[in-house]
Amino acid sequence: MMKPNPHYAELKDSYLFAGIAEKTRSYLEEQPGQRLLRLGIGDVSQPLCPAVIEALHAAVDEQASAETFRGYQPECGAPFLREAVANNYLSLGVSVSPDEVFISSGASDELGDILDLFAPGNAALVIEPAYPAYLDASVIAGREVIHLPSGTENGFLPEPPDDGRAGLIYLCSPNNPTGAVFGREKLGRWVDYANRTGAVILFDAAYKAYIEDESLPRSIFEIDGARTCAVEICSFSKTAGFTGTRLGYTVIPAELTRSGMSLNAMWVRNRTTKTNGVSYIIQRGGAAVFTQEGRRQIKEQIAVYKNNAACLTEALDECGVWYTGGRNAPYIWLKCPDGIGSWEFFDILLNETQIVGTPGSGFGACGEGFFRFSTFGSPEDTREAARRLKRLLAK
Asked: How far is Cα 51 from Cα 285, in angstroms, rounded to an integer?
């Protein structure tokens, strides 16, 4: 008799997004015609840039001719895109071989799939507040989860623990949900810790394009020693607006080995076993991101979201509200005023200002009393939200 994976029964129900949807639905039923200002969802609002659209159209046209038709792509990624990604790392002063780059259908997919490389007995360390997928993917894989709390005392960037229990370490910088960014020194201590204990860092760099402070690392491979302890997982979604087209990449250095096994070689075998590659059309669009014109256009798009962040943080500064993020990240993580709870603040914002954000408690116990704003909305909605927010907080 077939037995299902028992670890699914260990997953806790997530009230976060279902709760947000239910509350907003009820509000609109009671207040028909109201326009909500949605600063909660982490989806982008700007369209794909012209260079990407042009590349996508050209790739579609190629599929219409027998001479240029492309079928299955290499499972680990088309050489032209692997090379483009590797060349892009040179701008950070980082040397990466195309053979160390693996093209994926998105960072979220890869964060779950990558766990295939590690035995279930490896405990996973998750810094809270945390992106919920880290926890759920680990639970589904049947591994112990170690929760490392963080808070205002360390800017939501804690130090490594004293013990070496964790075999896997999830780090996200810039962080979702807190917007906090690791500096070189502190990130270096995590790299040293992983090398010392034999752990592997799964470094989620989905938002690295938003780092504007040149002193902050955009890749973990800017840190000495990272090539022997880290995997970097990246996304085109927030960098180039690919949330609807789905594309990402993962970097696994050749030097990363454990128990005499190469994680790079293991991942080659995994991909050639479990995937048929990412769409040729989408990969051509991804390659356009790294062209000179693509870089320029995407920089302009990111500036829209950065201006949104500046608009919101200016309002919070004016009202004396504590927050992290905003400058080097597309998320703003604020302390709820007057010590009220996350969901209480959600209700106040919804009912008094028609602003929808994300309660911090949905990202773990350490998020209670905090709130997340996304800066991916339209500039018009963001400016109006900032005006309403200042009026509310002035009370």
From this structure: 8
208-233 burial, b at 16+ Cβ within 10 Å, e below that, comes to bbbbeeeebbbbbbbbeebbebbbbb
Tell me the one-letter amino acid at 142: G
Summarize the confidence of residues 248-266 as an average pLDDT.
98
| CA within 13 Å, CB half, 85 | 31
Our measurement of the distance from residue 175's CA atom to the centroid of its chain's CA atoms, rounded to an integer in Å, reads: 7
Token reading at 6: 């028992």
pLDDT band at 17 (very low <50, low <70, confident <90, very high): confident
DSSP β-ladder status, 230-235 and 248-251? antiparallel
Tell me the H-state helices in the chain: 16-30, 50-62, 79-89, 107-113, 132-140, 184-197, 237-240, 263-274, 280-288, 292-319, 342-353, 379-394
Q: What pLDDT is stored for residue 16 in this prediction?
A: 86
Query: Where, residue-wise, is CATH 3.90.1150.10 in the chain?
Result: 12-41+294-394
8 φ, ψ (degrees, to nearest 5): -60, -30
Helix (H, G, I), strand (E, B) or coil at 156: coil
Instruction: Determine the distance from the C-alpha atom of residue 234 to the mean position of all C-alpha atoms in its chain, rounded to a whole number.
Output: 8
pLDDT (mean) for 141-152: 97
| Residue in the structure block whose two tokens are 């709870």 | 341
Q: Which CATH architecture has domain 12-41+294-394?
A: Alpha-Beta Complex (3.90)
Residue 286: is its pLDDT beyond 80?
yes
Distance, in Å, from the CA atom of 156 to the CA atom of 179, rounded to the nearest integer, reads: 9
Q: Rounded to 10 degrees, what is the CA torsion of 238, 19, 313, 213?
A: -30
Task: Kindly state the average pLDDT of the residues 198-215.
Answer: 97
Structural tokens at position 77: 């990624």
For domain 50-290, the CATH architecture is: 3-Layer(aba) Sandwich (3.40)
Does the structure show a pLDDT above 90 at 2?
yes
Position 79 scores a pLDDT of 98
**Is the pTM above the cut of 0.85?**
yes
Ranges of CATH 3.40.640.10 domains, the chain: 50-290
Q: Which amino acid is at 354?
A: Q
How many Å apart are CA 262 and CA 231, to the nearest integer?
Answer: 12
